[in-house]
Amino acid sequence: MPAAATLRRQAVHDFKRQAILKAAEGIFAERGLEGATIRAIAAAAGYTPGAIYAYYDAKEAIYGEILTEQLGQLARAVKSAAAAASDDAMRVRAAARAFHDYYRDHPRALELGLYLAQGMRPTGLSPELDRQLNGRLIAVMQTIARAIAARGGLADAAANRETVLLTATLCGILLLEATGRLK
Length: 183
What we know:
- With 183 residues, this protein is mainly alpha-helical.
- The chain has helices spanning 3-35, 38-45, 49-53, 59-84, 88-105, 107-115, 127-152, 156-178.
- α1 packs across α2 (38-45), α4 (59-84) runs parallel beside α7 and α7 packs across α8.
- The protein is globular.
């Protein structure tokens, strides 16, 4: 098969996949994971449900891919901010600010991520997707933990605890900002 045809086929595949993800993000934001259906996602994307199944086997897989992409963007923002900082103290601030600013600027990403918590009864997508997504979030937090460890001369366990406290605080602030409780 000629290279041009292969490239064109890949471009069409990627375009359709992105259209599905964009439509699904809106449906998930509007209806939540439980209320979303492949049929609704397909209609919003301008496809048939069968066309969606050519790309994803379930709505959970779509949700997982959206979160995977968002966590990748978050990781790049945090790493970039930390790497650009001039010293250890600034690295912690820059990483924390990048975490906050990413979710402030992408409220749907925060909403979709927090939706899986479902209050005090966490739900998941599937054991494998949950493991992958948790791994991506942990990688972001490790960037912050390394900066905290370097700044304070802390052991890994102490830096990890501080990172959990910092990110939990940031999530609380983001939640208060998003709901208009903190201006």
